[in-house]
Amino acid sequence: MKKYLFFLIIAIAFCSSCQHKANNKEAVANDTIVEEPAFRVINFTEDLTDCGKPLVLSDIVDNVEYLKLETTEKGFIAEIADIKMSDKYVILTSFMVDHALLFDRATGKFIRTIGKVGQGPGELLSPCNVGIQNDSIVYISSTYTYALFAHKITGEFIKKIPLEPNIAYPNMNFIDDYIIHYPGSATGDGTYANAYVQDWDGNVIQESVHRFPGKFTKSLRLEAPSTWTYKGIHNVFSCATDTVYAVTKDSIYPRYYIPEGKYKREILDCATNVTKDFYENAIRMGTFIETKEHLLFSFCLGPNIWDCHYNKSDSNISLWKYTRDDFKAKKGQFSGLINDIDGCSYSKPFLSYIDDRDIVIYITPDNADEIKKIVTESTNVKFPEKRQQLLELIDSMGPDDNPILAIYKLKD
User: What is the pTM of this model?
Assistant: First the structure.
């Protein structure tokens, strides 16, 4: 019976997710991710109990480096809205700044602004998310505009690329000359969009959508998808099917089934009146991080925040629970995740990707004193010389300086 149920789950994940314009079996057979089965089931809700043991950052991170972004009149950062990094560049958008900002990856030196605000051809209303491809092309999404604006790295506008379906704030990845975006939108006809692969003309090459049965009058109350990249394979967790899909230019296929069980939110549309319990008694997925041995993800349930760690080697699941007050008291240290690399942490979650294999903490004039205190009091760090370097950088920071990026290198 257990064997039957397992294969039934796999069948559901393959079939209920949707429309894929490729041969999934062939794609899985040609998968470049080695030493892994094609599909895993992670039943994390079967026993929501804090494991009571620590998970240290050095389990998933093997080094850290710091990059001080140069402060100039044209390159001033109010607060980072979105940021991406390539081998040569750092590109970001900032709240209340009407263009993207380009910095040198090695030195942090400000290079130029990219994009222009306005309503003419190639002009933005307000820059939102950014992407960078092959150290040569920058993509910017614009508020209330269902398109990406492509620019040369030298700043020249190339073209406006329409997005299908209409999505104003797309999270994006790239494969060769193709754009992946993750709408996470759920329309009134019950269609939930997980991922789309498009070419430069806006033509859809691959798509992953799920259609909920029933009658709805407005868009559905669903969470946006969580995305990450592992070994060159782009991944998206769909709250529609509780499934992690790998996205390539040739196929979209399932890698993990992570059922939310009895904590899964009821599917309703925005016209339905709901109470506070509708949001608090259901799981809301957060950030995923993946290495060769580990899959780590966070989620909210009621007043608590949880970390879940899945060990790929033995399929063991560990959980850590903490309240929002605990989170503030711990200065951002995840209950199970202790920063033993350099001791750096602060009162906001720092599991934020800057590129495929790096996560980042922003040190700003506003949080510098708080972080300095935490770093100074940290003990038993793997890289004491890095901790000292960070403290010296914080001491050199002026009241109007741009952020220091603490960039943590994920294993493998």
Answer: 0.85
